[in-house]
């Protein structure tokens, strides 16, 4: 800008130094006007363009019409008026500019070059007036003028051609006329050819205009109808070169940034290349940052950025992108003048993100906002505009979304009406034809689900088959249509059964074609793969199904990458619950090795926790061998741990993750570190069993098995009595029909497994108890495997009478915990963090919580522990966790099945600042190596989030991930009174046996035995009756108090020892 300001100052000084009637006066007026216009172009200060218009008008008043420069000055005045119109939208300016150009063209007797220049200006002015008034005649006249300008222009033919091509494309947008699109493509192809030939000094303004104009028709063609990637890559290459040579402060830079971003979006839409997606976001951010708030292109730059962020949210799932997108688009919509040609585009994008926000949060106001914005976008879009069908499709999808919410047939009728209207407008060569017909098909699917009329289903299938004709072979929308066809065929097969003989054949054909669309998004491929594998499995094609499911499981990390926040990872993984279990089961049916099936199960479960385990893994060996690499690793994991510092935005986390992945590759290139942070090998899995067998119970619709991991082998025991369906039924009945449920669990799972391992009888007196580790999958995680058995007095037919039971979420997690330092004899801390919550705001009182902590306080001295009892608030507790060896909480627990990361321990400030799973998981305590977290509260180990059951997100696992070597928790509600008994026996065992790994699991085992035997003595087990409420006192589940201060609900009490579980090494 300094050079432009300097030019204005020099021009002003020169004019002031010139006598009024000097021969150079008019020329110097023109020079000053040009300098002011250039400064306006950069700053958009209206005062500058006003002065340029006034000075040029003054100059013309004193210029002989026959003077050689008169026509040029007139043309300049028209250009300045056009520039002022683009800033202020005053019609009198553009009308005056057109009158000047028309007068100039009709009286021009000069060189064809000058006439061609004035015709170009005229065509630009007419085009701008068309955008304002929508008078089609202006656009036609503009094209006529541009055509003639091309015939008269030689040296600037690229500029003239570009203007003509741009106008052809504008008319195509208004009328959907394919001849106009073809003309635009032909003209711009010539422009691109001329640019390749042009090796002169870069004119950045000119290059930007040419590339920006050329990108519009080519993007439309490639994005909507397919086409040559060679051509697209060529335009991208030219744009990259132009941008790389353009100064950072150049006024055309924002346009080039937007143009390149749009080109990359087209390529991303066809290839799913994430590099293009992330680069596009970065370019759009830079472009928006260059424009001040009063810039006329500011709203469209915000729209571009908002659209890019929305696109990345749809693909990657970062909620912060969606939130920022809504914010930007609302600003863009509110600052766009009514009637602006950009209004419809901005409102349409805003509608899309509003609907996405509703789908994520359930906020119905957002859905209503989406419908309103779509309606307004349609109103702002002329009936013949190329984008009219797209706007109608969006409205149809919004109504369809509301129908799924309300089941109101009116919404379904509106959706079908809008979709059918879109189809009627979108002719067979229209770019949105396929999307319009697809929308009709999904609306008909919804209609079938409401009415069960096969006609709707058949019509939808027929439409989908015809839709495929309009989709380019390399467009991943094909995968979307094939997926819908699969769903439609499955519905039809469900109605007709064996009568639909060709159903399976058609289903396999379409799903295989969908699976073959390898460039489609990973989430869509996984969904199709799971359906295809199920269909193949139904025909006993186990080998092919196993191969597909293996690839689907291997795609899971791509839908839940490390840079996403943990909440976003949860959202992405919800739709794939049970995938890994199915893959393992089908792999076994395909007669493949047990270790191969188990590795798949490990890879596809606990994805979120697995990423944290990786990043928090012990690197002592690396530190000894390559200290510089270890230092780099520690720095990156310190700033990248997504469960910790969430202040970094997604882009920052993504960039750090790229560096982290590159560092991992460097580490793996070092001798002896080839397997660094790779999935567990078979030998590593067997090593995990060196303290006792590990039993991974896998449940799927195909088969149920126990993987038995031992130091020398991995075996599989099929569990023929266990079925997926009955497991879910029993899990639901557990609390109301507990003894039969425990007996069933013994008969179907525990007894066959323990017998197979050789644990057929209780250990003789004086013999050390054997220990096993259970890793349940799916709904099996809801059941107390450690309590399975026939609990008749003295039967011995129980897990509790044969082995000590511990749990873990995965083999990887178990090994991770074992590899942490063991601070037993002389740890870094001897503090016991003790928290009793006998009174909790808005919760029932727990009279035995103080007794529990008093008991522990008395045991601290013989355990060589220093009791610490801080203020009962979240921040204080989190700070104290960093220096404790034992953490014992006696209070209320709150489980959140819809968002398990928000499950919490309730402290005094829980209503405003709860201590959640996310908080505990974020507490990186590995360096302190805390020994035991005892969560004496309800449901601290509950895993009832059905769609996240494989992720094992609960308070117990979060403490383990934070660094605790052992965690005691509960599967569901526990008795306040009996909590004291369990804690007493466990800590007395530690006192007697020493603070060892074995003493924790043994202490809980003895506590459960004593409580179980007490129940037997009272007759509650033999008589098959629930334990009386009088023996249970109050539970420690978070149940809000009513207005009278009493609990709103009081559950039936029962076997109080069953819910307690141990997670640890």
Overview of this protein structure:
InterPro entries: CHAT_dom, TPR-like_helical_dom_sf. This is TPR-domain-containing protein. With 1065 residues, this protein is an alpha/beta fold. The protein has five domains: 246 residues, Serine Threonine Protein Phosphatase 5, Tetratricopeptide repeat; 107 residues, Alpha Horseshoe (Serine Threonine Protein Phosphatase 5, Tetratricopeptide repeat); 59 residues; 132 residues; 204 residues, 3-Layer(aba) Sandwich (Rossmann fold), CATH 3.40.50.1460. The chain is 60% helix and 6% strand. The chain contains 42 helices and 14 strands. The relative contact order is 0.04.
Outline:
The chain is built from 42 helices and 14 strands. The protein is an alpha/beta fold and 1065 residues long. The strands form 3 sheets. A 6-stranded mixed β-sheet has the order 7-6-8-12-13-14, with helices on both faces. Strands 3-2-1-4-5 form a 5-stranded mixed β-sheet, sandwiched between helices.
Question: How many strand units?
Answer: 14
Radius of gyration: 36 Å
User: Could you state the oligomeric state of the chains shown?
Assistant: single chain
* CATH fold title of the largest domain: Serine Threonine Protein Phosphatase 5, Tetratricopeptide repeat
Number of helices: 42
Helix content: 55-70%
The largest pleated sheet is described as: 6 strands, mixed
| Low-confidence region ranges | 1022-1033, 1040-1053
Protein name: TPR-domain-containing protein
Pfam family, one: CHAT
Domain CHAT: 741-1017
Organism: Aspergillus terreus
